[in-house]
Write a structure and sequence with these properties.
- With 203 residues, the protein is α+β, with helices and mostly antiparallel strands.
- The strands form 2 sheets. Strands 5-6-7-9-8 form a 5-stranded mixed barrel. Strands 1-2-3 form a 3-stranded antiparallel β-sheet.
- Strand 6 and strand 7 form a beta hairpin.
- The N terminus is likely disordered.
């Protein structure tokens, strides 16, 4: 019978049981090199798991829904949407990414980043908000793409609501946006008491 045992941090023994004499014959001992291979294999496996955790195919943990029920379609990347904004204008899409900025006043808009691109997300009919502390969390959203001309004053208002400096905005801009009917945030929180009050006032 052949087996392997690991002794210490860098020593592996391969042995054969000699049934006739009842003892072990050490065939060979490989130091350093075997341990390096084991370490490399472990590092490779760990890296694979980390990359898998970043994959959009990995299910969300503790997902929380905001807005209407999400009917997942084929996912469209933001890179594709931005590159073909005219074709996607008025189309319903399903996107996934990471939140990059949330309205700090009410939670009535957010930005989603994916693949180096970013899109502003408003919420359909102002019917729901998201927690103001959602930045950096994985998110899914479904809604309609539009391309709009936005005035300097509106952009400054957005910047202020996001906790930024409105004086940094100096011009109008044409912006591709998503008007979302559904948003799902990984480990999403409940709305604050203030947000719940604001929501009830709109009903």
């Amino acid at each position: 019978m052949i087996w392997a045992s690991i002794r210490g941090s860098c020593c592996v023994h391969f042995a054969v049981a000699d049934a006739s004499r009842g003892n072990e014959l050490i065939i060979s001992q490989f130091e350093g090199m075997v341990a390096m291979k084991i370490t490399a294999l472990f590092a490779f496996s760990t890296a694979a798991l980390v990359l898998a955790g970043c994959s959009p195919d990995v299910p969300f943990e503790e997902p929380r829904l905001y807005g209407e029920a999400l009917a997942e379609m084929n996912r469209v990347s933001l890179s594709e949407i931005m590159a073909q904004a005219a074709e996607y204008d008025g189309q319903t899409v399903f996107i996934e990414g990471v939140t990059r900025g949330v309205c700090q006043s009410k939670g009535c808009w957010m930005y989603i980043a994916d693949g180096g691109k970013e899109i502003r997300v408003n919420f359909k009919d102002y019917a729901f908000f998201v927690p103001v502390g959602s930045e950096g969390k994985r998110v899914k959203a479904q809604g309609i793409i539009t391309t709009q001309h936005v005035s300097k004053e509106t952009r400054q208002h957005w910047e202020e609501d996001g906790g930024g400096d409105p004086s940094s905005i100096h011009s109008d801009s044409t912006i591709v946006m998503l008007t979302a009917s559904s948003v799902v945030i990984e480990r999403g929180e409940e709305l604050s008491e203030k947000q719940q009050q604001l929501m009830s006032q709109q009903e």
